[in-house]
Amino acid sequence: MKIITTLICFLSLLQYTNALNLNDIKKMKTNPTTIATTTTTGAPEYVTFTMTTPGAMLTDCPAGCASGWLYYGSKCYKKFDTPATHSQAVTNCQLQGGELVQIESSSENDALRKAFDTNALVDETKETWIGLASTSGSWKWTDGSTASFTNWAQTQPSSGQQCVQMITDALTNSTYQYQRGGWKTYDCSKTSASYICERDANV
Predict the structure, then answer these.
(1) Are 171 and 103 found together in one domain?
(2) Distance spanning both ends of the chain, measured CA to CA
(3) For residue range 61-114, what is the model confidence (pLDDT) as tens digits?
(4) How far is 145 from 10, CA to CA, in rounded Å?
């Protein structure tokens, strides 16, 4: 079932390339930002080319995730723009059949940052909870596992603040303004503007 779902997601990406002809590809070679819209009307023209990736991305995948959720790897993700404390965010994600996001790699972190960065300039109350918190001196995820990957922003983690936000937007605080995707600590009892839930994809 996982192979079938992956194939369906891959085929959905091919919809963007199945109308390319030779001239389109030549244009893309000289200008990678050009999006081809023409189709071949004569005899088929065949060409071999190498695809490159812009990096990790979250995508819509109806076969794997419910409407409103984005697919990456074997997980579905959704950002909820609902003010909540860290514990409220944990509970709300559990009610969604998942957990407050647990980020395991730089590629996953980068995909989330790209998907949810609104290019806004905000204060830290507008940042996004993730499922990491300090427990007995160790940084642990909500499932109790110790973090093997972290992406702390400059000067972080800060002592005295035990829950963690991802900087998805540029902060008005100049220290963190250019560190989108970085992590910073914040008071667990204070309200943050959003949180990201994750749950298993339907594979």
Answers:
(1) yes
(2) 6
(3) 656 899 999 999 889 999 999 999 999 999 999 999 999 999 999 999 999 988
(4) 32
